[in-house]
Amino acid sequence: MSAIGKHAIAVLIPCLNEGPTIAQVVRDCREVLPGAQVYVYDNGSTDNSVEVAANAGAKVCHERLRGKGNVVRRMLGEIKADVYILVDGDNTYDLSGAPALVQTLLNGGYDMVTTARMAEPGALSFYDRFGIKLLSWLVSLVFQTRMRDVLSGYRLFSRRFVESFSGVSHGFEIETELNLHALELKMPIKEASVLYRQRPHGSKSKFRTVTDGLRILLTIVSYVKRDRPLRFFSFLSFLLMPLSAVLALSGILPRLSFLSIGSDVLLLAVLIFTFGLVFERSARRRRELKRISQSTTHPSDL
């Protein structure tokens, strides 16, 4: 492993059929971080990704369970380092600033440094841009922070972050889960801008805009329901309250019937809000226990 000062660094590259680009990514990592241990985790490639990655100087490992989330969890669970750099193998991210990002992580005491993509013309479709903005806005709203790109595949972690993370994602929702984990535990994070290039000829994206976008959205909703239940159930309750008033005041059916239905809906809204209060207390206790465990069981040496 390479070290800036006394800190060991590991570069982690998930890979699935990235034969046209993976060698360049490995060479770029070795050039900007001389002597760094570069790991390529192959996820069942059917092209020459494994051979070209090994020839470029990477240590090649394998994860048989398909899905980027499975690969990232395997990498973070197996590799031991002080600083972890996670980057896609498609040669779209400009890695020239990697040493500066490492220094930012170390000197700033951050547990995660993530990147916001400044895309070249044509590098991201309209739907990709819209999805990134929508999901980033949603995460920022729920956690009262500001994140510009929650889906970026290029980010750095401290050892404390990695040792505290136990994800459940299988696919591309892993980036969102990494963000939510840091925000839930109030870990110090930093977002930096990075150039995002068009995919080179012959390289194809595995991200399915609609299918994977919906899975990411469901991940956020599930996380909010579990870890911010008061906000989740309050939102549902406030949606039902105007509905109860509309039903009570409507004159389409006999007034008594709608008054009865409206009062039932109002009662349901109050019950849902009460559930939120009860679950929020348990969620806060769970977050406190996780933070205590994080600070005592996984002390940071950075």
How would you describe the overall organization of this protein?
It contains 10 helices and 8 strands. The chain has helices spanning 22-32, 49-55, 68-78, 98-108, 126-143, 159-164, 174-184, 209-227, 229-249, 255-297; strands at 2-4, 7-15, 37-42, 59-62, 83-86, 112-119, 155-158, 189-196. Strands 1, 2, 3, 4, 5, 6, 7 and 8 form an 8-stranded mixed sheet that branches. A hairpin with a 2-residue loop joins strand 1 (2-4) and strand 2 (7-15). Helix 7 (174-184) runs parallel beside helix 8 (209-227), helix 8 (209-227) packs across helix 9 and helix 9 (229-249) packs antiparallel against helix 10 (255-297). The longest helix has 43 residues, at 255-297.
Features:
alpha/beta, about 300 residues, eight-stranded mixed sheet, 10 helices, about 50% helix
Helix content: 40-55%
Number of strands: 8
Query: How confident is the prediction overall: mean pLDDT?
Result: 83
**Count of alpha and pi helical runs:** 10
**End-to-end gap:** 16 Å
Q: Hey, roughly how much beta strand do the residues contain?
A: 15-25%
Structural class: alpha/beta
Order of helical and strand elements = EEHEHEHEHEHEHHEHHH
Q: What would you say about this model in short?
A:
This protein has ten helices and eight strands.
What is the fold's blueprint, element by element?
Blueprint: E1 2-4, E2 7-15, H1 22-32, E3 37-42, H2 49-55, E4 59-62, H3 68-78, E5 83-86, H4 98-108, E6 112-119, H5 126-143, E7 155-158, H6 159-164, H7 174-184, E8 189-196, H8 209-227, H9 229-249, H10 255-297
Helix pairs in contact: 5-8, 7-8, 8-9, 9-10
